[in-house]
């Protein structure tokens, strides 16, 4: 599945950009929420998520790169998120936060940064609908793909199979045709791409290129 990352869109015309992603046959829309503490950047909050939810029928994949996802969880649930991903490294009770997401009827995701070992998420794999392996250091768009994360993606896929689980494996950062192919070979099935999609003059063709890869 292909999930264009709104962080790379033209924020002067967000509704048009969201419609462009939908018309290009995107599966999901990936929304990166940054608080300036967990990562060194600030993006947007629940009000923007709510506005986007009102403007599209696309599945909203909301990625909370914030220090206290538990504190803000209910606001993003109310804003219209379909899936909320929180970081294993953030300051919260991971198990409790995941339970809160699922109790609200949403899909629950767990993310880990490139430097975080796969062992950090193993206790939670049976409680998630998606595992996000960051393929860049989170915080800024347009970074180069980190190939060392491929072994982590493959390890996650092996754990998924050995435990009979069915969570999605998502990758985010530096995703274009060649890196998408490498991630898919390792076991990933959801590709988040920002610059390579919103920066393309022909987004449908760019999405087709990712699918073909």
Describe what this molecule looks like in 3D.
By secondary structure, the chain is α/β, with parallel strands linked by helices. The protein has one domain (2-212): Aldolase class I (TIM Barrel). It has helices at residues 14-23, 46-55, 69-79, 94-103, 150-162, 177-186, 195-198, 203-212, and strands at residues 2-4, 28-34, 59-65, 83-87, 107-112, 130-134, 168-172, 190-193. It has an eight-stranded parallel sheet. Helix 5 links the parallel strand 6 and strand 7. Helix 3 runs parallel beside helix 4 (94-103) and helix 6 packs parallel to helix 8. The chain is globular, with a radius of gyration of 16 Å. The mean pLDDT is 96.
Could you give the topology of this structure?
Elements: E1 2-4, H1 14-23, E2 28-34, H2 46-55, E3 59-65, H3 69-79, E4 83-87, H4 94-103, E5 107-112, E6 130-134, H5 150-162, E7 168-172, H6 177-186, E8 190-193, H7 195-198, H8 203-212
Parallel strand pairs: 1-8, 2-3, 3-4, 4-5, 5-6, 6-7, 7-8
List keywords for this structure.
alpha/beta, 213 residues, TIM Barrel, 8 helices
Annotated CATH architecture: Alpha-Beta Barrel
Side-by-side strand order of the widest sheet? 1-8-7-6-5-4-3-2
Number of strands: 8
CATH superfamily: Aldolase class I
Instruction: Count the domains.
Output: 1
Please state the overall shape, judged from the principal axes of the Cα atoms.
Answer: globular
The tally of helices reads 8
Percent strand:
15-25%
Query: How helix-rich are the residues, as a percent range?
Result: 25-40%
The biggest beta sheet is recorded as: 8 strands, parallel
Order of helices and strands: EHEHEHEHEEHEHEHH
Give the averaged pLDDT, no decimals: 96
Cα distance spanning the termini = 12 Å
Q: Could you list the spans in which at least 5 consecutive residues all have pLDDT below 50?
A: none
Rg of Cα set: 16 Å
Q: Which topology does CATH recognise?
A: TIM Barrel
**Which structural class fits the helix and strand makeup?**
alpha/beta
Q: Quick one: CATH class?
A: Alpha Beta
